[in-house]
Design a protein that fits this description.
The complex is a heterodimer of chains A (131) and B (287). With 131 residues, chain A is α+β, with helices and mostly antiparallel strands. Chain A contains 2 helices and 7 strands. Chain A has a 4-stranded mixed β-sheet with strand order 1-7-6-2, with no helix packed on it. In chain A, strands 3-4 form a two-stranded antiparallel ribbon. In chain A, a hairpin with a 5-residue loop joins β3 and β4 (44-54). The chains are: A alpha+beta (131), B alpha+beta (287). The interface between A and B is large, with 38 and 71 residues.
């Protein structure tokens, strides 16, 4: 969890502001997951993952958000690219983004209550404005 | 949004967005080719040399917090296995298929050689038997079919018409499909460098194959680089009065599908109607 909060801070996900009068303030939740992985030495290790979820489902379209879009490639496209890769003997590598959502900007004004366990002791009444 | 940032970044690097569905980026520089394929937060990097691969990786690392996964092994559950000496790339979903069989408790079932009985006719059941995990099974097999298994297209197309009206008979049919999967788990698509890189489309239609509605079924596939890159099996929307009409409807579907292939692949594509009695030859041309 501390690791996640650090990433959130580093990415400037939000800024603390005064509670807005005319906007809704949404809540967030920590979601936990235990991941079992087979380590390099063949032992099972379990890793505890924590995820801070902003409750988007309480948003209202047009009021809190306008557009949603995620780039999704079609299977046909993937297969065509792989066929070309094989045909030309090209290199094929893969990368993933550690925190895709934290890299995005929110265009609309969205406010969130401070997450449980990480409330700023000096400003407990402030709320987070997502950036 | 993440995508907007990535799009800006790639364009600033000189990439062109060449795909109608916005996920494919191409850069041609000094005879080097770099292709970036985006799937939400997963990036597939294709490059004509290792140096070019590292160039784009470095640039991405500088801009975003990324994890380098090295040579691509799995994307969306599709396993990629390369044999550089032979020049082949195999795409399969063995691990996923095994999980599906385990989930429905058929991990130890006996394999069978074909997915369906020849000429099988199914009718809607009056009441769905909710105790049977029929929908889950259809859905799970669907992902297998969509990913790497054109051979399941007809069976899944047929069985998915009954997700709201299935009975024991349908369940028995899907169990047979699962037994077929058991015997062909690691089969997949093998692309190889010695095969033709001309996109070829093939279509066929049965005639009034569905006895209840008298509608025909279209089937088509596109072959590129030695294996299928897209395929489909679906019931036609209207009743065809002749085999010729059914074949033509199928041909129309293939012609539309051509445009869902990335540019560079679809140029010079050929779509001969190979239906048994159909002699029409359609040439899909780039507009």
């Amino acid at each position: 969890m501390d690791e996640k909060m650090e990433a959130i801070r580093k990415n400037k996900t939000w800024r603390l502001t005064d509670r807005p009068a005319s906007r809704r303030v949404l809540k967030s939740k920590w979601v936990y997951e235990v991941k079992t992985e087979v380590g390099k030495n063949g032992n099972n290790t379990s890793r505890h993952k924590a995820r801070l979820c902003f409750m988007w489902n309480r948003q209202i379209k047009g009021l809190d958000f306008n557009e949603t879009f995620a780039p999704v490639a079609k299977f046909t496209t993937i297969r065509c690219i792989l066929a070309m890769t094989a045909a030309n003997g090209w290199e094929l590598h893969q990368m993933d983004v550690k925190t895709a959502f934290l890299n995005g900007d929110v265009d609309e004004e969205v406010y969130m209550e401070q997450p449980d366990g990480y409330v700023d002791p000096t400003y407990p009444d402030k709320v987070c404005r997502l950036l | 949004m993440w995508y907007a940032k990535l799009d800006d970044f790639l364009k600033a690097q000189g990439f062109d967005n060449i795909d109608p569905d916005a996920c494919l980026y191409l850069l041609m520089d000094d005879g080097e080719i770099i292709i970036v394929l985006v799937y939400v937060d997963d990036l597939l990097l294709v490059a004509s040399s290792l140096a070019a691969t590292y160039k784009i990786k470095d640039a991405l690392h500088k801009r975003f917090e990324m994890k380098d996964l090295g040579e691509a092994k799995v994307i969306l559950g599709l396993e990629m296995r390369r044999d550089k000496a032979l020049g082949t790339l195999k795409l399969s979903q063995g691990k996923y298929a095994r999980q599906v069989l385990e989930k429905v408790g058929m991990a130890e079932c006996n394999p069978i050689g074909t997915p369906l009985e020849v000429g099988l006719q199914l009718v809607k059941a009056d009441d769905s038997d909710d105790a049977l995990p029929y929908r889950e099974a259809v859905g799970s097999l669907m992902y297998l079919m969509v990913g790497t298994r054109p051979d399941l297209a007809f069976a899944i197309g047929k069985l998915s018409r009954f997700v709201s009206c299935y009975g024991k008979e349908h369940w028995a049919t899907i169990k047979r499909v699962l037994r077929y999967v058991q015997g062909s788990m690691d089969k997949g698509l093998v692309f190889d460098k010695n095969s033709s890189c001309v996109l070829r489309g093939f279509s066929d239609a049965d005639w009034a194959g569905d006895h209840e509605t008298r509608r025909s079924t279209t089937g088509f596939t596109f072959i590129f680089g030695g294996a299928a890159v897209s395929w489909c099996s679906k019931l036609q929307k209207t009743v065809a009065l002749s085999t010729m009409e059914a074949e033509n409807m199928a041909l129309c579907e293939v012609s539309k599908e051509v445009f869902y292939h990335p540019p560079g692949v679809r140029e010079g594509s050929r779509a001969p109607g190979v239906g048994s009695r159909c002699h029409a030859v359609a040439r899909a041309q780039q507009p």
